[in-house]
Amino acid sequence: MEVVQTRVDEVESKFGVKKSRTPAKLDYLQSATGLMLALFMWAHMILVSSILFGKDTMYEVSKLMEGKPFFGESYPILVTFTAILLATIFITHAAIAIRKFPGSFKQYTLYRAHMKRMKHSDTNLWFYQIFTGFVMFFLGSIHLFIIMTNSADIGPYASSDRIVSEWMAPLYLLLLLAVEFHGSIGLYRLSIKWGWFDGKDPKANRKKLKKFKWAITAFFMTLGLLSLAAYIKIGLEHKANYGEKYIPTSEIQGVIK
Ligand code: HEM
Predict the structure, then answer these.
(1) 44 CB burial (10 A radius; 0-12, 13-18, 19+)
(2) Out of 1.20.1300.10, 3.40.50.1370, 3.40.50.1440, 1.10.340.30, which CATH number does the structure's domain 34-256 have?
(3) Which of 31, 65, 121, 159 gets the most CB atoms within 10 Å of its CB?
């Protein structure tokens, strides 16, 4: 190891080139932004799935995100700011990831051949990350922009109308598939890369981690599909009254009293 280091130092001083720490820093930044996005997605899917507990629950969650319980009034601009922050992390993560994409058809075919020869499931995972990441570039950006510019229109009816009457259902379905695979594969790869759960028997723990990865994917995928189905049902029922905002049961009861 020392011999290699000496050789590197010799080359550096002879040719006046400096070893760059940038690739290591970029790797670190990619891991950190990926972790933030994956954890955000878990929280996001749980919040979105509030619709499964009824329209009133989803309404309350949307008001919570607008800060109503804290400030007494709704500030949708808070959701806009959150979306801008998320978009910044999302773009940073994607921009750093591009450097690992196959740069030409030749590189792509070489990698595919390598995949076939290796028959190693963790090597295949890398390819799925590239594919799902590419899909998310486009679909995720559209969703983020719409949320950013329509932050006041999040609620049981507004969201369902967007999904059915504004045709977001197919986009959400594809985005959901991409996100759920990408997120859990990403977290699994991060744990392996940084040895978070290596313990005393890294090989056995890697197997356990892989099972856990599938469980997480199945859980969030089911949650996402059920939520999407619930929004679609409400959106279809509400089609004739497209654009009308949801009034929570508590407010209706208040008026009747
Ligand atoms: C601050 C940022 C975000 C906010 C406030 C937000 C909000 C929402 C809301 C309210 C919905 C319900 C449908 C609707 O109203 O249109 C939704 C659905 C969805 N969002 Fe986001 N989102 C954000 C970021 C993201 C990101 C970064 C992704 C992934 C790249 C994503 C993926 C999805 C998916 C897949 C669905 C469909 C969920 C399902 O089918 O159950 N969201 N989002």
Answers:
(1) middle
(2) 1.20.1300.10
(3) 159
CA 189 to ligand 1 center in whole angstroms: 24
Amino acid at site 162: R
CB distance 61 to ligand 1 below 6 Å = no
Nearest to 39 by CA among 179, 203, 229: 179
**What is the spatial distance between Cα 194 and Cα 212, in angstroms, rounded to a whole number?**
17
Decide: 224 in ligand 1 pocket, CB within 6 A. yes
Q: Kindly report the CA angle at 239 between 238 and 243, in degrees rounded to 5?
A: 80
Query: Which amino acid would we find at residue 201?
Result: D
Q: How far is the CA of 140 from the centre of ligand 1 (A)?
A: 8
The residue whose CB lies within 8 Å of the most ligand 1 atoms, and thus the one to mutate among 143, 151, 173, is: 143
| Cα–Cα distance list, 133 to 3, 34, 82, 175, 243 (Å) | 40, 11, 21, 10, 33
Q: 152 and 198 in contact (C-beta within 8 Å)? A: no
Structural domain boundaries in the chain: 34-256
- Tokens (6 digits) for 23: 């690739």
